Amino acid sequence: MTHLERTALEAIVAAAGRAYAPAGRTQMHFARGKLRHDPVFRAILAHGLVPDGARLVDLGCGQGVLPAFLVAARACYERGEWPTAWPPPPRLASVLGVDLRRRAIAAARVALGGRATFEVGDVRDAAIPPCDVVVILDVLHYLPPDDQAGVLARCAAALAAGGTLLLRIGDADAGLRALVTRVTDQAITLVRGGWPRLYTRGLKSWITVVEQAGFRVEAAPMSAGTPFANVLLVARHA
């Protein structure tokens, strides 16, 4: 990254983190740490993966750090503090986030206020309204294969023609990185009070199941600076 890109990114992270201050210091520091160190957020901005005017649905949204990041990025852009190499960040027409964890949803509502809608729900059966972008980051491997396919089919049905599914998955065929990813996922969930069965796949299998739902898929490594086996699938509605 250039100096200007690093400066802009840090300003966005700081602003998005401040939005969580009323929800608590833990929520604020989590947001800042996640946005600063997870490469997927920077990639979504730098590659313009969410178009202007998008209706965004975030399944498994946690405390809503992606919408908070995009809102902060737009404010940075409108102040004229924006790297020329990056496309303008989107003005979001609407945001819907869904997650099972009530405390995370409560924090998201505090941070985004009336700029987004957040609901407690299960991604397997939550209603997905007509939309332009669906984001599912690090979620589907918690669901059995039939449920994975069901969620993908409902995303395809909700997305407008040419719409985009941004799906981050772990590549189970990536050796030691795959093991680190799996152990980390289970440790995080244990801290939250559970020990789930994980339904992981290799990258080729993930691409196949997404294509079967009616998408054209491009894969981009998304674990730079981390020990994980993460890949972002950019899936266009066929």
In short:
The chain is of the alpha/beta class. About 45% of the residues lie in helices and about 20% in strands.
Description of the structure:
The protein is an alpha/beta fold and 238 residues long. 43% of the residues lie in helices and 21% in strands. It has 8 helices and 7 strands, in the order αααβαβαββαβααββ. It has a 7-stranded mixed sheet with strand order 3-2-1-4-5-7-6, sandwiched between helices. The model has no long low-confidence stretch (mean pLDDT 93).
Overall geometric form: globular
| Amount of beta strand | 15-25%
Helical fraction equals: 40-55%
Q: What class do helices, strands and sheet pairing give?
A: alpha/beta
Instruction: Kindly report the average pLDDT value.
Output: 93
CATH class: Alpha Beta
Strand line-up across the major sheet: 3-2-1-4-5-7-6
CATH superfamily placement: Vaccinia Virus protein VP39
Looking at this protein, list some descriptive labels.
Rossmann fold; alpha/beta; globular
Helices and strands, with pairings:
Layout: H1 3-18, H2 25-37, H3 39-46, E1 55-59, H4 65-78, E2 94-99, H5 102-112, E3 117-120, E4 131-137, H6 145-158, E5 159-170, H7 176-191, H8 203-212, E6 215-221, E7 230-237
